[in-house]
Amino acid sequence: MSNLNWALWTVAALLLFWGIGAYNRLMRLRNAIAAAFVQLDEHLTTRAQLCSKLLVLLQPLLSNERATFEALEQAQAEVSAAAQAARPRPYMAEPVGMLGVASAVHAAALTRLMSMLEHHAELREHADLYALVDELKMVERQRSFARQLFNQAVGQFNEAITQFPTRILASMYGFREARSL
Q1: Rounded distance, CA 24 to CA 61, Å?
Q2: How many C-beta atoms lie closer than 10 Å to residue 19's C-beta?
Q3: Which residue ranges does UniProt annotate as crossing the membrane (predicted)?
Q4: How large is the angle between the packed helices 93-119 and 127-162, nearest 10 degrees?
């Protein structure tokens, strides 16, 4: 073999190993998005359970606030459906975008409920209610932190697929930009 053939084989081997390394890096970053979503999903599930308990406790006490309860129930159903759609592929932009919108609607409904609780002084005597509210606030803080970790993972992945020359491989293998919450 001539020196030119050796040089061509060396360049081809370097490109092959670089391509494998870049693909593995993108897969590792995409898997980090999925791992971060699992943590976020756990907090979404816990929040849904706590909201359901809170609604069961409040509905007999405040029957005239049915619209607030229905808004939270509907928002919770939308978040659950959006999370279900995002679970298989949390790195896909569309289902995560739907989850982001549903989460914003849920946050507004939950804020409305919390505001309503502050205006009803007669509910202060229910220790179970405020223990549930405190637990819900703690879960919300944890969910916020998990969301931040998810967004960081998405940012790292999106940065990696836009860097040259990895951008070429990303488009060849169908890696698309992920969406943050």
Answers
A1: 56
A2: 16
A3: 6-23
A4: 150
Assign 129 a pLDDT band (cuts: 50, 70, 90).
confident
Residue 175 DSSP label: -
Residue with token string 């020359």: 165
The H or E element containing residue 177 is none
* Residue 126: per-residue pLDDT: 82
Average pLDDT score over the chain: 92
- pTM of the complete model: 0.88
- What pLDDT, on the 0 to 100 scale, is given for residue 125? 80
Q: What is the mean pLDDT of residues 58-73?
A: 89
Cβ atoms 39, 128 nearer than 8 A: no
Are the C-beta atoms of residues 160 and 26 closer than 8 Å to each other? yes
**Which of 48, 57, 42 lies closest to 130, judged by CA?**
57
Q: What is the mean pLDDT of residues 26-39?
A: 96
Cα gap 151→144, rounded to integer Å:
10
The token pair that represents 177 in the structure block: 């930009």
Give the type of residue at 159. Answer: E
